[in-house]
Amino acid sequence: MSAVERVLSNEEQTDLVQTPITPIAKGDRIAILDILRGLAIFGILIMNIQFFSYPDYGNAAFADFYPGILNQVVKWGSAFFFQTKFYSIFSLLFGVGMAVLFDRSMQKNTKFTPFFSRRLLILLCIGLFHGFVLWDGDILMTYALIGFALLAFKKRTQKTIMIWAASALIVPFLLMGIGFTAWKLFTPQKVETAEMVKEKTEKQEKRIKKAQDELRIFAQGSFAEQIAVRTKTTLNRQKAAIFYGWRILGMFLLGVWAWRKKLFQETENHIPFIKRILIIGLTIGLAGNALFVVCGALTNSTTSFLFMLSMIGDQIGATALSLFYIAAILLLVRNAKVIKYLLPFASVGRMALSNYLFHTLICTTIFYSYGLGLYGKFGPAASLLFVLLIYVIQIPMSKWWLKRFKFGPVEWLWRSLTYGKRQPMRLSLAIEPASFE
To answer: Residue 437: inside a domain, yes or no?
Structure first.
């Protein structure tokens, strides 16, 4: 019996129960996965709140618009410990989800590719609405599009999956190296002149002007104006996925590999391996993120050698630290005293998609003109208060919902459209305890 099972009372087990829909069998949920999803959603919100609540003036102007040591600490602290780490965790869990669904389809001898393709297409539609209508920071479109690549690995060996995962994580380094080398070779190197200094100043002023325009549009502008900005930004983000999408694919594949290795299902059998991941992830993660933050703080140019070092540090450090976080949670949930503090995140994780979109609804209502219009009124440090407020609401709200319904509202819609028929939503009176084996 795991620490999760030992610490759960009957009432708590009811909070985490999964009454399944066809073809999911009863009691299939593993609590650690829901805890990780809940924590990942929390970490993602810590970063996203910065984009929800105030414009980006760039490093050079940051201290002018967001003065004070506390804002500086939050800026670089969130970059060090949170930026790209938690969406990397969520990416790994997405890969786990694919592997779980494929295993179930094999057990029931059903066709997986049409089912998973429908699932991804529906997720893509949700992402399109989210990104173009509600908020331009959407990740669902990228997940859906890259998710199709997973179909090529559904029957591959563990060795092949790991090779491709490592290769996908290496691709951004190659792209950075090629880009930086090409820039050095084909761009004439000049001694900095007064004209070049003037050009840099103009670029910075242009960035500040763009941020001030966004401040006006999102704090006071019309919904149509906001849609126009969102459309442009969302399209640019999808173009940038050519670079950052490789990391997502790599983490997807690591998730498939981890599930098949049974790291989550049979954790006790893999403790030495998990401890090695913990130590290696922490060591490389701290070094890589130190490089990311320090070099990033020392340059404002996207073509400088320091910028490239910062990006290398991010690529290495974010992946390593995200694996450290996962390993740490896998070890911590074995302790009955610690698990009590982690279990509340499981309810949030069980309806992660709904909660992710809930963040958008509540934050845009708070900060945008059609709501309270508080965009730009709070800097980095003050914005974190909204993260805590949202989670204080979200944890009990998720528990309340799951006592009455089988799925989160968006999860229910996603399942219903995937299976082509309306799925049962309300819990029956006879509830069986969840299995966490």
So the answer is: no
Q: Is residue 104 part of a domain?
A: yes
Exposed, middle or buried, 272 (CB in 10 Å: 0-12/13-18/19+)?
exposed
The C-alpha atoms of residue 346 and residue 360 are separated, in whole angstroms, by 20
270: pLDDT confidence band, cut at 50, 70 and 90? Answer: very high
- Classified as helix, coil or strand, 425 is coil
> What's the number of domains the chain is made of?
1
Cβ-Cβ contacts under 8 Å for 3 (sequence gap 6 or more): 333, 334, 335, 336, 339
Q: pLDDT tens, 318-340?
A: 999 999 999 999 999 999 889 98
Q: Cα-Cα-Cα-Cα dihedral of 45, 48, 52, 57, to 10°?
A: 150
| Token pair of 205 as six digits | 């002023």
User: Is residue 433 situated within a structural domain?
Assistant: no
Distance CA 36, CA 323 (A): 12
Within a domain: 200: no
What residue numbers bound the domain in which 410 lies? 3-186+223-419
d(CA 180, CA 44) in angstroms, rounded, equals 30
Q: Look at the block and give the residue holding tokens 């149509």.
A: 224
> Is the separation of the CB atoms in 369 and 221 below 8 Å?
yes
- Three-class SS string for 166-216? HHHHHHHHHHHHHHHHHHHHHCCCCCCCHHHHHHHHHHHHHHHHHHHHHHH
Q: Tens digits of per-residue pLDDT, 26-73? A: 345 688 999 999 999 999 999 999 999 999 888 878 888 999 999 999
* Phi and psi torsions of 375, nearest 5°: -60, 125
Report residue 86 as tokens. 């938690």
The residue behind tokens 């704090």 is: 219
Taking the C-alpha atoms of residue 259 and residue 319, their distance in angstroms, rounded to an integer, is 18
Amino acid letter, residue 33: L
Facing residues of 405 across strands?
426
Nearest 5°: the CA angle 343, 88, 244 is 160
Q: Considering only CA atoms, which of 198, 143, 176, 127 is closest in space to residue 357?
A: 127
The CA-based angle 317-320-322, given to 5 degrees, is 105
